[in-house]
User: Fold this.
Amino acid sequence: MLGKTGSGKSSAGNIILGEKKFHASFSFESVTRNCEKREVTVLGRKISVIDTPGLFDTSLSEEDLKAKIKNCVQLAVPGPHAFLLVIRLDARFTAEERNTVKWIQENFGEDALKHTIVLFTHADQLVMPLDQFIKVSQPLEHLIKSCAGGYHSFNNVNSGDRFQAQKLVDKIDALVRKYYTNEMFQQAQEEINQKEEREKEEEERKIREREEQIREEERRRIERENQEMQTRLRMAEEARRKLEKELEERNRISEEIRRLQEQQNRTRQGVNNRKSGESSEESSGTCCRKPSGTVIGLLVGITLAIVVAGVTIPVAIVYKIHLLAEIAVPIGFIFLPLMGSLIGCICKIMKQPREGERQHLIN
Ligand SMILES: Nc1nc2c(ncn2[C@@H]2O[C@H](COP(=O)(O)OP(=O)(O)O)[C@@H](O)[C@H]2O)c(=O)[nH]1
Ligand SMILES: [Mg+2]
Assistant:
């Protein structure tokens, strides 16, 4: 008996056996925790029923589920005549139940469907003929077509109706040409194991490929980053060299400026020295700015006075003009040196450059 919890497996088992051998209860929790086998002998014929927990709706781990299924089949040694897929008629046909065909094949092998009968329970709740009800539901029809044993219905409430159980046994008898043996199960298990092995290998291969791909991507990323780093280093090196050049250039300019400033300072100092020399001469009491100019003027004046005297005296002697000699000579000797000195002094002042012009020259 296979089916969801509460589908009526245990109740249907009791109907088949004609006795209340399994505990049936309305509970969402699976009452039957392990596979249980009950037997009766009716008219010399032994009938065995194996009840199962709601295998597709339990939260069993893959390993536990496999162990339970294996246990089920071992209980049915040499193998079950039929798998009864129990579905209740008064509830929605769930997606879980739609996948039952696949589930049976995966867990009991491809051939298990040849021995499967869909057993509907809660027939007493049905408001229309069963075949009509099936036709309305396409998934249900599809499920029944997948199972070689077709379908049958039970009203588990009516335990006194032995006819429904007998009809099912007849159907099973008609179906069974060959036992679903332990060997078949083992073969099926082997195939399932091989498939799992193949899937595992495939999975491992994919993981290896993915790892390889990740490593390759990582390697490329590092390479790319290295290249970028080197480019950046190169650029930094170029920038450094450029800065060094600029620094050298600046140092050179600073040196040049310093040299020019020194030169300028020296020039300034020279000018200042000259200025202080002049001012010291001025303060020594000379009437003119440049004594050399005054001296020259004085000498020229004296020379001119001598020349005038040299000309005037002979003329005054020859022509006996005593007054000329007496007046012109003294006047010449006083006036001309004075005039010479004055002219020399003025020339000197005019030749002297102005302070502003001098500063301009220094700069
Ligand atoms: N009305 C009605 N109730 C049913 C029928 N079959 C089972 N039940 C009830 O459904 C509940 C669950 O049944 P059970 O056999 O324990 O389901 P299991 O979990 O699949 O074994 C119980 O309360 C049963 O009395 C049926 O054909 N008609
Ligand atoms: Mg049960």
User: Anything to note?
Assistant: The two ends are 119 Å apart (CA to CA).
